[in-house]
Design brief:
Elements lengths: L9 E6 L11 E7 L5 H9 L17 E5 L4 E5 L10 H17 L3 E9 L6 H13 L3 E6 L6 H19 L8 E5 L8 H12 L11
Parallel strand pairs: 2-4, 2-5, 5-6, 6-7
Antiparallel strand pairs: 1-3, 3-4
Length: 214
């Protein structure tokens, strides 16, 4: 089961600074997640490619912004997850500054997909990313990864709890949500079609679509 657009994803470049990214034009969706959240596995499942994004038993291996083109106008962007990585404080500060600048300044960015381990949601990194999206008016879609690690009932309860936190702490309204959330399992394929649907909606905005107001 593959999506004809996302299976076309191909690696273009890796960047350590925003200036090294491709031109800020067209449309792109970024993927973020604390190290060990299953981000690389999720990207590989969504694109139907086993090795597009690097997966490793050592968390924190993504140490650059990886840019994957879908076609001439659309792209997926893999952001580094530094929350668990064994890197220096200097490197962590660099990526914190770079991620914030990317979210606030990148005009081609249509939305952010945030991976949260369903067993350990709302880490400090998760909350920081949600806050940045809230501050910048950036649409957010959360994948509760590794849903296969819980029973169906427990996963459903976790989903509802995350929705309650988003509503109570971040003001996400059910009628017009700027942040949405779903269950996801890269191993089982749970939620892949739902994730495709969200990406499709963001890419359908068009290249001139303005961001939601802060």
């Amino acid at each position: 089961m593959n999506h004809p657009l996302y299976q076309q994803a191909s690696f273009v470049s890796g960047a350590h600074t925003l200036s090294q990214l491709p031109p800020d034009e067209g449309m792109e969706v970024a993927f973020a997640g604390r190290s060990n959240s299953g981000k690389s596995s999720a990207i590989n499942r969504i694109t139907g490619q086993k090795a597009l994004a690097r997966t490793s038993k050592t968390p924190g291996r993504t140490q650059q912004i990886n840019y994957f083109a879908l076609d001439a106008q659309r792209a997926l962007v893999d952001l580094p997850g530094y929350g668990y990585a064994k890197v220096s404080g200097k490197v962590k500060r660099h990526w914190q500054h770079t991620l914030e600048a990317y979210l606030l300044q990148r005009q081609a960015l249509r939305g952010l997909v945030l991976m949260m381990d369903i067993r350990h949601p709302f880490t400090d990194f998760d909350r920081q990313m949600i806050h940045w999206c809230q501050h910048s008016g950036m649409p957010l879609h959360i994948l509760l990864t590794k849903a296969d690690k819980l029973s169906r009932g427990a996963a459903g309860n976790a989903l509802q709890q995350v929705r309650r936190v988003l509503a109570q702490e971040y003001g996400v309204a059910r009628e017009q949500p700027w942040a949405t959330v779903q269950l996801f399992s890269a191993l089982k394929g749970t939620g892949v079609e739902e994730a495709w649907g969200q990406l499709d909606r963001w890419f359908a905005m068009g290249p001139e679509k303005e961001r939601a107001p802060d």
